[in-house]
Amino acid sequence: MDAVFTLPYSEFAIAERFISVFKASDGYSVFVPVSRTEKGIDLVLTRRSDGVTKVVTFQIKSSRTYAGTAPKRKVKHRRYQHYTWLNRFDVPEQADFVVLFGLYAPDERAGHKTNRLWWKSHVLVFSHKEAAALLANVKTRGGKPDRMFGFGFDSSDQAYLTRGSETGEHVDYAAHLFTRQISRIRRALGHDDGTRV
Predict the structure, then answer these.
(1) Residue 16 is part of which domain span?
(2) Chain-centre distance of CA 55, in angstroms?
(3) Which residue from 31, 107, 138, 171 could staple onto 44, CB 3.0 to 4.6 Å apart?
């Protein structure tokens, strides 16, 4: 085993977010697979209650985030301030949930201070079934499977599929933002907080 254990930033950021939301005082724990070859699982979230531990697994896919540019000609659809771009992938059977992560700078003015707190993350969560359905329908305007897909947004509460839609329509996926999936993840671990989104 290597003497130094490293974790991609996207996985670290999601683990950190999980720890802040899913509290140890409520029985939650976050685990990272030690093996680099652990297929299909990047993070494990557990909850122990009444002597029983329940487990859900996550695969995390990260994207660069690109700044939108003003169109050179009139375009049918709106342009967004930020875009994520991801390679199409097969959803692993080991993952209960798939997390799509993008890191972006909310204010790109020249000379603006860039510290840790300045950077924001755009996080979408899909169940295994939902991720498989999304990727099965990622197509070009010609109806062929597209090798990439991505989301556009102006603020952290938006998520529009901008590449991968056969019709070219910007499909709204804001319901899959992490903040709107917290209760669902809790319920998957047997913790019903009474919240419905």
Answers:
(1) 9-188
(2) 19
(3) 31
